[in-house]
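Field notebook, page 689. I keep forgetting to write these up properly, so this time I am using the form the group agreed on. The chain and the ligand, adenosine-5'-triphosphate, are recorded exactly as supplied. Prediction of the bound pose follows.
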Amino acid sequence: MATATHLEKLNERQRCAVEYGIGAEEGAQAGPLLIIAGAGSGKTNTLAHRVAHLIVNGADPRRILLMTFSRRAAAEMSRRVERICAQVLGRSSGMMTDALSWAGTFHGIGARLLRIYAEQIGLNAEFTIHDREDSADLINLIRHELGFSKTESRFPTKGTCLAIYSRTVNAEMRLNEVLRSWYPWVAGWEQQLQELFAGYVEAKQAQNVLDYDDLLLYWAQMVSDASLADDIGNRFDYVLVDEYQDTNKLQSSVLLALKPDGRGLTVVGDDAQSIYSFRAATVRNILDFPKQFAPAAEIVTLDRNYRSTQPILAAANGVIDLARERFTKNLWTDRESAERPKLLTVKDEADQANCIVEQVLANRESGMLLKQQAVLFRTSSHSGPLEVELTRRNIPFVKFGGLKFLDSAHVKDMLAVLRFAQNPRDRVAGFRLLQMLPGVGPQTAGKILDTIAADPEPLMALGEVPAPPRSGTDWMSLVELLQALRKPGSAWPTEIEMARMWYEPHLERIHEDAETRRADLVQLEQIAAGYPSRERFLTELTLDPPDATSDQAGVPLLDEDYLILSTIHSAKGQEWRSVFMLNVVDGCIPSDLATGTSHELEEERRLLYVGMTRAKDQLALMVPQRFFTGGQHAQGDRHVYASRTRFIPATLLQFFESANWPVASPNVSERSAKQIRIDVAARMRTMWR
Ligand SMILES: Nc1ncnc2c1ncn2[C@@H]1O[C@H](COP(=O)(O)OP(=O)(O)OP(=O)(O)O)[C@@H](O)[C@H]1O
């Protein structure tokens, strides 16, 4: 049979994966399928084709569940599916792909299902969701209540407590095992931690909030009931999961419960790109997938890389070849090039920034847009000096990863208003909101929240609370705002505008640079307009906040040209013609925080690999000889001498072109300056005599 036009561009293996089990017999569903593939081998492309092919062959798009790692990836996948479908279905394809309504992240899909099945599992469907920071704040409140913060030897911080809790539930392990393996230095606190987590769980339930982990945990609990699992599983004919290497144990349990025999199930991943073990993701999921089923899942391997040139791929293969455990084979490509990736040694971070700016501009001169170039780094703070240099030279850039738009205090303030209106039992939101009023501190806020908590309509009860002293007219306007927001049927996104009008005078009082912050709030409103309701807005935004301010809003930027700055984690799944990588030195990659266990080290190696495989035509790894250490104020001058990352030992140097920047010239003034001798001390003394 001739190949359908929409599959023509695929190679044979890709086509095999796309067509597997589709259209075999009327009504028969494909068995489980694992697509295991290296970087740039067209995984995402293949998955999009498979979804499109299903639709073209009559599958009901409303019954396809597609889970990706981020909302951005889900949106991109839907766009691709639409483009492919359009080739076959013509104009009606838009309608079909719009119906692909179950595309999102694991957590986002979990939240939707929990609201649908809330009644069956004894959950109040109006729950709000805590992000990591809110969760840490709530843990902190309980830590205080239990008196652990006052203990003589230091109790772990709220962040550590949350990390321990999260790892325990996501890895489906016992607390003592988690402590022994990952947090041996806090093992002595096991009993208190147990008590703390019990208190934390009870508080969340009393306040009707779920944290990120709960979305998976509740989902897993829900599908542990066979008839509920059946009911949910039967909503979907096909379940497809991208980036399967970064799922955790809990996620794989959920998946298996939905599709115990694997019919209609497709997962895609690359074990060499597994970089999220700090979220308890486990590469075992992908390795053990085939054998979970009888007969075992079909495996299709993709090893042809379409992205990078041969020399770039050779260097990346070299790096990953040294990994302890490997499952996917080395990649190959037919993209010839004479240009090897560069290993550029520079004096320090300032030179590193200068060197990159010079090359980025040279690339642009030769016709490569800024957008086709990216600078990647292990940790968000590494790009500081470069950001300064880019700003100084008026080169536009957008940064992904690191501090999120939603983490800024004023955006959090605004969201607290909306969250509290949505769920007045949410204590973390209530605390934040009430303390925005003049004269209201933690104690007063706590008392008010206690008073209203018992009432079935807490916001109504708020109207009866006497105004706190010194809050003036601000108290009444808050009460009125909340009651207006609580009214059923109030219009979205007008509600967020109401909240902003209320918040603006407080913004000016609380924050110094109110003007810039106000611009963010307007942007937030624009983002909000893209959602059908307050609840959807709050849920989606909390689960997967925009990575950069321009990610969703600020659309005009999309027409302009700008350089991409990104953490390696946020660069996942993307590609650029030219890629620069900052601080490819020991202490940065591997991060000095991650050199503890061999597991951690191996993950750092994979991170370097993920970064290198983002490059299509050019790759430059930067090796500054000294760099400033973190954890000090901006003018601090603690620095360390660095050496090239251990992941590129001498044996791999053959794959690189090593060079120094700037190229040393024989008569640089620095050298002649070295020969001058003056006696400053003597001059100082003569000033006084
Ligand atoms: N059959 C093909 N012919 C030509 N180009 C292809 C083919 N398949 C994929 N590509 C191109 O290869 C590049 C990588 O594809 P894609 O992003 O789907 O890979 P991936 O495996 O998901 O990558 P990674 O895991 O590294 O993020 C894209 O530019 C894509 O257009």
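OBSERVATIONS:
- The radius of gyration is 28 Å.
- The domain at 406-543 is CATH 1.10.486.10 (PCRA; domain 4).
FOLLOW-UP: compare against the apo run.
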